[in-house]
Every structure is written in structure tokens, then in C-alpha cells.
Design brief:
Keywords: Membrane, Transmembrane, Transmembrane helix. The chain has 62 residues and is mainly α. The protein has 4 helices and no strands.
Length: 62
Amino acid sequence: YVDTLYFFYTYPWCFLFLSFSLVPLLVGDFLLVVLFYFFFYFFIIILLLSAFGCGPDFYFVL
């Protein structure tokens, strides 16, 4: 758990997404944090692609 906190506080790009990762950090599971970031970036990429019209029709799902 200490190593997980050290890993996230040493990389500056994690400061942008600390508010999104409070729940996985409280759990303290490193794999849960990795999965959370993976699905978060996947969601953002799909949302950006659908906004430019070159991705799946994501707005119909919403």
C-alpha cells in the first residue's frame, strides 16, 4: 500500500486524476487502480473519437 502511494505521488501526471482515483487508493489494491485507469482512459478515448465522428456512435448509448 505504501509502494502504491509512492508510485502515484512520484509521477506528475497522476495529480490530474487523483480525484478520480480516491476510491481505488482507499482500497489499496494496485491492480484495481490499474484497471480503473485503463477503463477511464478507454472511456475518454471512445468519447473523443465519437465526438469527431470517427468512432462508434457513443452518444446513442448515453
